[in-house]
Amino acid sequence: MISEAQRALRFSGVGSSDIPILAGLLTKYGKDAEWLFGYKTGQIPEEPPTEQMAWGVTLEPIIRVKIGFMDGWAVEPDEETHHLIGREWAYCHPDGVINHHPTRSGRGVLEIKNSRFYSEAKGPTDYHLTQLHWQIGITRADYGVLAVLEAGQKLHIIEVEPDVEIFERLVEMARAFWDRVEEYRANNNKEVNNG
Questions:
Q1: Which ranges of the chain does DSSP label H, i.e. alpha helix?
Q2: What is the pLDDT of residues 22-53, one digit of tens each?
Q3: 141: CB partners within 8 A, 6+ apart
Q4: What average pLDDT does the structure give for the chain?
């Protein structure tokens, strides 16, 4: 499902899939900062991909193309891995780049999600917003867009403004975590290999 280069990247720093775990947003699934520490240090093996993950990978480019065909939108895949300047361990790989938006100027990042249910009244989950704030901050995008395909039938487009305060808190939290991972690796003097 992922390339060897992508797998290696997971062990080189903190990505947007890691940030919600560090923020305590996946504890009900048994994933918290301690679980992530075990994974990043090679003490916990990589989990096999699920059918849900496979469908997400399959539908993502279709959703991106659909958005690109909407009036006023110009969207393309983002093939680049972005790193935070001066903190190469902080990285992200957005699902897309928004080169033109019908009502906004500048460049945006796109995060695509498949969901069984989406509540317009409640809005996006903290999990999704945390990922997007990480991506906006690292890429220095002018805005972010979360595209949620609900039950394979309805596409929700949610625009998110940059928030420097949220991003700085996320970086601080991630820095403390990554320092701990690097200290463990140095003390145990071993390569991490979950492949």
A1: 4-10, 19-22, 33-40, 51-69, 126-139, 164-188
A2: 999 999 888 999 999 999 999 999 888 888 88
A3: 106, 107, 108, 109, 135, 162
A4: 91
Fold of 4-188: Lambda Exonuclease; Chain A (3.90.320)
Nearest partner of 6 among 80, 75, 60, judged by Cα: 80
- The residue type of 138 is I
Give the global pTM. 0.91
CB-based contacts of 151: which residues, under 8 Å, 6+ apart? 115, 116, 117
What are the two backbone dihedrals, phi and then psi, of residue 114, each rounded to the nearest 5 degrees? -110, 135
Give the residue carrying structure tokens 């140095």: 186
CA separation for the pair 63, 60 (Å, rounded): 5
Q: CA angle, corner 6, sides to 3 and 12, nearest 5?
A: 150
**pLDDT tens digit sequence for 170-192:** 999 999 999 999 999 999 975 55
In whole angstroms, give the CA distance from residue 148 to residue 132: 13
